[in-house]
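Blinded run. Sample ID left blank on purpose so nobody reads anything into the name before looking at the predicted structure. Input follows.
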Amino acid sequence: MAIIGFIGLGIMGRPMAKNLINGGHKLVVYDKFAKFDDLVSLGAEGAASSKEVASKSDIIITMLPNSPHVKEAILGAGGVLEGLKSGSIVIDMSSIAPAVAQEVGAAVMAKNGAFLDAPVSGGEPKAIDGTLAIMVGGDKKTFEKVKPILDKMGSSVVLVGDIGAGNVTKLANQIIVALNIAGLSEAFVLATKAGVNPEAVFDAIKGGLAGSAAMNAKIPMILEGNFKPGFRVELHIKDLQNALDTAHNLSVPIPLTAQIMESFQALRVDGMDTNDHCSLIRHYEKLAKVEVRK
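Blinded prediction complete.
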């Protein structure tokens, strides 16, 4: 069985790595900032650098916050490329700019490796459950080789195109999620300010056309006043910035995304950038001077 290296053990990466260990895979793990003693106790081997991970692995997975972190971990000093073995596969599961995914992929292939960009959706709960949606860009043969591994972390694993296509798909996903949460926020603030019980509104509409996975996941959190991050505001800001940059480079206007970006920026100003992205409703609550709670 192939040895898997896993770099990036944060909110998402840690449970993803645990699911691979529980699935019977041998892991070599590393994170520049986070401790990983819990993974070592489960049988993983700890490493001191991304280079060491690559030198000991056949497949290297990175799960990092943004484009600069991926470039540092893979292309930088002490990075994956310095330890990469010929024929190894690098799978970047971070959500980054598509152009950066293509740049990193080209560098990996120049070292006789293979590369896939495979960002995920579903947040911490689905990372824990192993039911993430995984959007993959790259070579079909490479994808088919690693799909059983990706299946241990996700319930939906789809090849969407060439390298970079995975992150384009993720940007589309993040636009839809942001606009969905904004729509929920406006609607439930309106209902609450009008004197209608928001919990009753949720029960009444969740099974109809307005229902969505975002509604089912986020409205119960909002009603409880639970803004503990499954997916942080600051990370959604990062994704929307990547979406805006990509869209502008392609001459694609995305005005609704730009508008919601400003609402997320207002949350950052109010010190909520490490809260869950459903905190977007707190911006609308502030404007309307009402709280949507049980």
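Unblinding after everyone has recorded impressions. Residues 165-193 form the longest helix (29 residues).
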